[in-house]
């Protein structure tokens, strides 16, 4: 993946260099120094430290003592860990499946020229401005089984025990995630939809294609790259979902919504078992890397194919 | 462009310098003539500041008060305690909360201080003082106020149902039947928070088996959990849950967001088992209810149970512990003496805390709500045993497994044997 993207990058800067009248064809390595230093200091170094910690027993007091593979063997036989990975994947997939169609429809709609569009878009994008904590607190109050919406709609919610079962709690987390993140992805799709050349629609209209066919055969294919970007963001977000779990369900009932990120926090900062916490963190890093590599490969994102070929 | 890169590089090096400066800053502040006292940052700091001022007026060695706001306290304390930035004296919950530090040999046993001033022990209620005794040595002096767990009730709901406050377990079961017939949830329970559920275990286990059973379990004897008393207590809890005493949606209700207090205040539930702060919570959220209809009592007795019906559970108090490496143990002892002074007691009472010193009694009339303060004080004073909350008595590593097991037993995911197994798997203290 790196060759082609680097190639296009150096091509662009070569052109820029020529315009500025300097005979450089590659960006000097010096320019990479600040970013590299930051990356080493704040990304790689902590990662290495976490890897080392995962082979120690440390309660945060005193010095860590090496305990070999203890944390890892414990993790392998820990049902909560297995469940937490499974839960993380469920929450991630559910997030992508639920958010994508809504974001596309909302984004494409917001890219149009309807009346009141600007005002309504502004309203739809409000959740984007709120912190996850505020959102979780508000939804907790709305979903209160005795004083919130469920108590008024018992035909739908029964006794309102939404967060008392695993399926219910997962549904709530997915829904709140959708409410929180759809606006951001809609914004991406709005930008993507605006970039679709109008000539395509004009040609289709002449050929007699209706709105639905135009959407299916022009808008959607043209949004392919946007979609990949958006899905990758959703995957990363889904894998690291933490704040909503912390506030809405606290990983409960029992351990029913303890996803990997929350489990890591619990082990490290509530049980003061930094060794186990670090091991979980590493598992999360590996899983996330594998997934994003797979997406990049499978989607052809690495080829950076444009959508305006032939125009 | 080049100039900008330079600026970036400069900025970066400045940032790095800034980071290092920050981390060394507090060490520099810890000069040789000061004692650093670290406390949980909240409304009670008002009193702590006042006491520090009083101390500094006469002392050559000055006390500096540092606060860490909110729920971050424990993790931040854990981060600094074994570094040069560690405080000399710090706030804690006694019991398991300081055990890791005792084990790491960071804390000063206070027995020598007590030997030269017996008042440091004799001026405090014994049930409370003993919470910070580990392996026979004292590691903490009580500060702030005690927080026993009480059975709060809605007087109006009880009157409407023709019930009186239950004094025995059978009366409590009867109340469940009557209240359910009236369409009222007998007990409000913030099961989503998990710790309110734990309070039920603490009381039922104490009433059935007495305080020794839990002490046995805490000291590492895992057979305590599979004893007949333990099984009996679990059976009683199961019976209560199955009878619908808590309704069916308690797992979606929280105390912390005002859910379960509202159930009690609005008459949708008749009782709530809650720490003594439940009173202040109601005063704040539902002042009319707190004034007119909020009742409170001790947990009912269990016939045939080994536990004394006067026993209480909850948070006994907060404590000041002293670090071994403090340069001023003498002055620290002088500072700790202020924790049983009249000034301290009056100031705590004025902000609604209930100190656990023997002289508290004389000033109870000056408290924010004298009747409630007197009730609590007499309850704690008369209690043969004050069981510290299980999640505080065990070291921090056990908190999550306890909460999980407690919640899963209540909502039916664990049976009696599953719960016993979970408790036996707790990290030993």
UniProtKB/TrEMBL annotation, chain A:
Domain ABC transmembrane type-1: 85-295
Key words of the record: Cell membrane, Membrane, Transmembrane, Transmembrane helix, Transport
Bilayer topology annotation: Multi-pass membrane protein
Xref: InterPro entries: ABC_transporter_permease, MetI-like, MetI-like_sf
Keyword Membrane: yes
Organism from which the protein derives: Kitasatospora cineracea
Transmembrane residue ranges: 28-55, 85-111, 118-142, 162-181, 227-248, 274-296
Listed name of the protein: Xylobiose ABC transporter membrane protein
From TrEMBL, chain B:
Keywords: Signal
Coiled coil: none
Signal peptide boundaries: 1-21
The keyword Signal is assigned to this record: yes
A Pfam short name: SBP_bac_1
Domain of life: Bacteria
Keyword Signal belongs to the record: yes
Protein name as annotated: Xylobiose transport system substrate-binding protein
Organism per entry: Kitasatospora cineracea
């Amino acid at each position: 993946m790196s060759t082609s993207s680097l190639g296009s990058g150096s091509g662009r800067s070569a052109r820029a260099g020529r315009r500025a009248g300097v005979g450089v064809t590659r960006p000097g390595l010096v320019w990479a120094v600040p970013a590299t230093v930051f990356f080493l200091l704040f990304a790689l170094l902590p990662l290495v430290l976490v890897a080392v910690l995962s082979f120690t027993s440390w309660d945060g007091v005193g010095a860590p003592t090496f305990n070999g593979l203890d944390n890892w063997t414990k993790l392998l036989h820990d049902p909560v860990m297995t469940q937490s990975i499974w839960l993380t994947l469920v929450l991630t997939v559910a997030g992508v499946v639920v958010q994508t169609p809504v974001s596309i429809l909302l984004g494409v709609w917001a890219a149009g020229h309807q009346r009141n569009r600007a005002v309504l878009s502004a309203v739809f994008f409000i959740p984007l401005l709120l912190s996850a904590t505020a959102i979780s607190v508000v939804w907790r109050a709305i979903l209160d089984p005795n004083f919130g919406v469920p108590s008024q709609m018992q035909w739908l919610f029964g006794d309102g025990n939404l967060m008392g079962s695993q399926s219910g709690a997962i549904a709530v987390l997915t829904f709140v995630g959708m409410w929180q993140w759809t606006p951001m992805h809609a914004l991406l799709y709005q930008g993507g939809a605006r970039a679709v050349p109008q000539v395509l629609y004009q040609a289709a209209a002449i050929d007699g294609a209706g709105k639905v066919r135009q959407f299916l055969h022009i808008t959607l294919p043209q949004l392919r790259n946007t979609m990949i970007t958006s899905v990758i963001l959703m995957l990363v977000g889904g894998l690291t979902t933490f704040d909503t779990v912390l506030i809405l369900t606290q990983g409960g009932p029992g351990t029913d919504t303890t996803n990997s990120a929350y489990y890591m926090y619990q082990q490290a900062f509530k049980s003061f078992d930094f060794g186990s916490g670090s091991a979980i963190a590493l598992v999360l890093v590996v899983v996330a890397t594998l997934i994003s590599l797979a997406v990049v490969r499978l989607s052809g994102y690495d080829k950076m194919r444009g959508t305006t070929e032939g125009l | 462009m080049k100039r900008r890169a330079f600026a970036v590089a400069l900025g970066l090096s400045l940032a790095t310098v800034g980071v290092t400066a920050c981390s060394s800053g507090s060490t520099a502040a810890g000069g040789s003539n000061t004692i650093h006292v670290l406390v949980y940052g909240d409304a009670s700091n008002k009193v702590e500041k006042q006491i520090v001022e009083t101390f500094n007026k006469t002392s050559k060695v000055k006390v500096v008060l540092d606060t860490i706001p909110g729920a971050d306290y424990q993790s931040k304390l854990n981060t600094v305690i074994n570094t040069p930035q560690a405080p000399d004296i710090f706030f804690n919950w006694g019991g398991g909360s300081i055990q890791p530090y005792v084990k790491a040999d960071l804390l000063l046993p206070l027995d020598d201080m007590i030997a030269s001033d017996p008042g440091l022990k004799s001026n405090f209620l014994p049930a409370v003082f003993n919470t910070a005794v580990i392996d026979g040595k004292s590691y903490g002096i009580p500060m702030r106020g005690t927080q026993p767990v009480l059975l709060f009730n809605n007087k109006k709901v009880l009157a409407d149902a023709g019930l009186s406050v239950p004094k025995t377990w059978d009366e409590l079961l009867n109340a469940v039947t009557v209240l359910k017939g009236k369409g009222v949830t007998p007990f409000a329970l913030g099961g989503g928070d998990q710790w309110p559920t734990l309070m039920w275990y603490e009381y039922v286990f104490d009433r059935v088996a007495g305080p020794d059973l839990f002490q046995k379990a805490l000291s590492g004897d895992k057979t305590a959990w599979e004893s007949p008393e333990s099984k009996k207590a679990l059976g009683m809890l199961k019976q209560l849950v199955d009878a619908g005493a808590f309704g069916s949606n308690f797992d979606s209700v929280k105390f912390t967001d005002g859910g379960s207090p509202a159930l009690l205040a609005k008459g949708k539930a008749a009782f709530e088992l809650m720490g003594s702060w439940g009173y202040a919570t109601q005063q704040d959220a539902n002042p009319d209810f707190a004034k007119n209809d909020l009742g409170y009592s001790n947990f009912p007795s269990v016939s045939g149970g080994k536990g004394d019906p006067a026993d209480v559970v909850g948070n006994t108090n907060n404590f000041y512990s002293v670090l071994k490496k403090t340069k001023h143990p003498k002055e620290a002892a002088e500072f700790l003496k202020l924790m049983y002074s009249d000034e301290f007691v009056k100031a705590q009472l004025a902000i609604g805390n209930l100190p656990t010193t023997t002289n508290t009694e004389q000033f109870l009339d000056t408290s924010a709500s004298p009747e409630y303060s007197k009730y609590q004080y007499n309850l704690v004073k008369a209690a043969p045993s004050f069981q510290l909350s299980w999640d505080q008595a065990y070291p921090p590593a056990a908190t999550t497994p306890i909460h999980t097991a407690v919640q899963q037993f209540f909502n039916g995911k664990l049976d009696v044997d599953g719960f016993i197994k979970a408790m036996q798997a707790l990290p030993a203290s």
